Amino acid sequence: MDDAHSDFLDNLLTTPSPSGFETDVQRVWVDYVSAFADEVRTDEYGNAVAVVEGGDPAVAFTGHADEIGLMVNSVDEDGFVHPSRVGGTDRTVSKGQHVEIHTDDGVVRGVVGQTAIHLRDTGEEEFEDINEQHVDIGVESEAEARELVDVGDPITFDTPVRELEGTRKAARGMDNRVGIWVAAEAARRAAESDVDATVYAVSTVQEELGKQGAKMVGFDLPVDAAVAVDVTHAVDSPDIGKEQDQHGEVDLGAGPVVARGSSNHPEVVRAVRDAAESHDLPVQLQASGRSTGTDADAFYTSQGGIPSLNLGLPNRYMHTPVEVIDTDDLDAAADLLAAFAEESAGREEFAVDI
User: Fold this and answer.
1) Domain 71-157, CATH among 2.40.110.10, 3.20.20.140, 1.20.210.10, 2.40.30.40
2) Catalytic-residue membership of 207
3) What value does the mean pLDDT take over residues 173-182?
4) Span 90-100, mean pLDDT?
5) Which of the residues 67, 100, 185, 207 is marked catalytic?
6) Is the confidence at residue 242, as pLDDT, over 70?
7) Which residues face 228 on adjacent strands?
8) Which CATH number fits domain 3-67+172-344: 1.10.8.60, 3.40.630.10, 3.90.940.20, 3.90.1300.10?
9) Rounded Cα gap, residues 316 and 104, in angstroms
10) Which pLDDT tens digit goes with each residue over 122-156?
């Protein structure tokens, strides 16, 4: 990944966008795709669609812009802020973290309190629910706190992007800034190659709240196939490795992951795998016997059925402030989708043959 594209990823990762508050990161994404797209549009909730015009078929590459987080639920008489979840926030990793509260007047910094080990009964500890935890913003009264924050203000963990060894990065919100990076980059690479197919790059909102943005976009997105790019669990770390058989075979750095089964349309699966083979690109496979849990599950039931695929990006420590990805997987995914668009040019449909 070159510096310009790495900077784009870092800009996405450092722009807070909890579900329902995605506007800022959508601006970053729209600014980027506007440099090469023939058309860029947004809807009332902030879903963003970029179009690279071509011929048939029309294919969509999608990701979701929102991240999990917290929000201000209440303020107590001593000025401590009590949060609630935004999406699937993990109560086991929130305590002892630096956070930022995003208010209409700017950022208010705080920490999620954690009782010192010296003062706790150890050995039989349980993790408190998020709404039983508290954020200390440094004030001493409810009145002071309410001058700074409002109920409903979103909260994100204050975790910087860290370059690890080789091509690996750690940050919060990899889920799913890496997906919208790939959607944008795949469209850019398709445009640069002047592919004959029409390519839609899509950045949806509120996936973490039930794939709501994809339901909005899928209602009238004029495409023949959609590939939803999202993170999937890498199972090659010590905390999971011994149980790998029940979690699949996904490794970090071994390429994007093509899901098979459930919402994953067999003809789209076949076309993507063929593109990987013809362009010598690495892919991994993943079984999906019930649902993918991604925007693919919304797209494939839209408009009577859009042939859809979930393309996974290996991710360690999902839904924590220290998610880890390999940028080689992202580059391979963008190349793969651009190759899929190229190889699909002139195809009339993706329907199964019965």
Assistant:
1) 2.40.30.40
2) yes
3) 98
4) 96
5) 207
6) no
7) 62, 310
8) 3.40.630.10
9) 33
10) 777 788 999 999 999 999 999 999 999 999 999 99
